[in-house]
């Protein structure tokens, strides 16, 4: 059975690809989130319907309000490569969102939040959002299958 990361747990030391306008770089998740208050949300796939029409756009629209609650970073992660995450962020005007690629799914697996989607794309991330304070999980909202309520920007803003 997969063990899902728990409240109070530290973010694992797993490599991610940080996507910026300047390019890409490999960063360790625990180091990236250390000393910061972070809202991290995960989507099953870039350019997919709910993710593109609602999930990422909600955080784009509410970014200033979320950051006004003391959040240092809003990050979006998906089991996609860095080139896809960069193109998706640009298409969505997500300048205030840190786009993270978990290309091989190592971070998603370390959190215990992977799901198998078969022909849709293989191993992907479940849809979730979490609040991280100095590398420690303070809130974790994982969506039930085919739902979009607890991980949306409005729900996280209310939890801050």
UniProtKB/TrEMBL annotation:
Active site: 51
This protein's UniProt keywords: Antioxidant, Oxidoreductase, Peroxidase, Redox-active center
GO biological process, one term: cellular response to oxidative stress
Reactions listed under catalytic activity: a hydroperoxide + 2 glutathione = an alcohol + glutathione disulfide + H2O
Residue span(s) of domain Thioredoxin: 5-160
E.C. designation(s): 1.11.1.27
GO molecular function: thioredoxin peroxidase activity
Cellular component terms per the entry's GO annotation: cytoplasm
CDD domains membership: PRX5_like
Domain of life where this protein originates: Bacteria
UniProt-listed InterPro entries: PRX5-like (IPR037944), Redoxin (IPR013740), Thioredoxin-like_sf (IPR036249), Thioredoxin_domain (IPR013766)
Similarity-based family: Belongs to the peroxiredoxin family. Prx5 subfamily.
Function: Thiol-specific peroxidase that catalyzes the reduction of hydrogen peroxide and organic hydroperoxides to water and alcohols, respectively. Plays a role in cell protection against oxidative stress by detoxifying peroxides.
PANTHER family documented for this protein: PEROXIREDOXIN, PEROXIREDOXIN-5, MITOCHONDRIAL
Protein name: Glutathione-dependent peroxiredoxin
Upper taxonomic lineage: Bacteria, Pseudomonadati, Pseudomonadota, Gammaproteobacteria, Oceanospirillales
């Amino acid at each position: 059975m997969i063990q899902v990361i728990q409240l109070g747990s530290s973010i694992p030391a797993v490599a991610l690809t940080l996507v910026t306008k300047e390019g890409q770089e490999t960063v360790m998740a625990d180091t990236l989130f250390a000393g910061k208050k972070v809202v991290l949300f995960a989507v099953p796939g870039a350019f997919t319907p709910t993710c593109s029409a609602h999930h990422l756009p909600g955080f784009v629209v509410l970014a200033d309000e979320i950051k006004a609650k003391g959040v240092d970073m809003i990050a979006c992660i998906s089991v996609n490569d860095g080139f896809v995450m960069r193109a998706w962020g640009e298409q969505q005007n997500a300048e205030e969102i840190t786009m993270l690629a978990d290309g091989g799914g190592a971070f998603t697996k370390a959190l215990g939040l992977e799901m198998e989607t078969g022909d849709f794309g293989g191993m992907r991330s479940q849809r979730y959002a979490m609040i991280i304070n100095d590398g420690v999980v303070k809130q974790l909202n994982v969506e039930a299958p085919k739902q979009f309520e607890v991980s949306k920007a409005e729900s996280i803003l209310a939890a801050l």
